[in-house]
Give the backbone structure.
Amino acid sequence: MRLTIFWRVILAQLTLIALILGVSLYAFSQLHHLASLSTDILATDSASIEAEKRLLKIFLLQMRSAEKYALLRDDNLYKYFVEGSNDFTRAFENVMALVHTPQERALLEEIRELYTRYATGLKTAFTPNSAWARGKTEISETLIARINALIRFRE
């Protein structure tokens, strides 16, 4: 049985409609997948940025305590510095858990090394010609720059 022109046109239009619907559904599913990926990335990045900013804030408080300790030689200020060291370590571990790239890991290793130099150098702050007293500004500025670079990397 032969189809009339009317039914041929209807079948061609139905085929086109089915193809358009199929492509549209595929595009919609891909857009949904992309939106969920970007939401996940945004959640991870914002958590990482917040943790990195907290790390910076803790170090700035540490630096203030160290400066006061070096100036006033008050043991309570040193105890506060040690307590802040524990906070810094916890914040550092949180940041370490959130990073994935080799560049971020390299920055974090550099931050860890600089912080260790800064914290251990504070113990020698009162010795004559202390290396910490001469290099504390350079170490702290470099450490702050590395933490800011880590934040910029995520942003």
Q: What stands out?
A: The chain has a mean pLDDT of 89.
